[in-house]
Amino acid sequence: MTTESGIEPEELIRISDEQIARFVVERFLSDVEWTELDPDYDLLVTGVIDSLGVLQIASWLAKQHGITLAGPELTAGNFRSVRAIRTTAERAEAGGVA
User: Fold this and answer.
1) What would the 3-class secondary structure string for 30-97 be?
2) pTM here?
């Protein structure tokens, strides 16, 4: 079965919680090991990231993983946690609206 983007599902680039956690820790939490970051830890409420952080993560997804997020996908809820970021990226990869 081919997705709307014309890519076969097995060809989709998978991004892991680990990759996202490593980036978040490297960029925003340098005093923490990536293994300590719970995938459901609320990055927004705790002030780890803000709107600029959302844009930095979106830019990283585009540059490193070829995942482009459109304006409607750049909502705070889609970047609330490592798990939310992964889900958003996977939806975008599959051609769905995050």
Assistant:
1) CCCCHHHCCCCCCCCCCCCCCHHHHHHHHHHHHHHHCCCCCHHHCCHHHHCCHHHHHHHHHHHHCCCC
2) 0.81
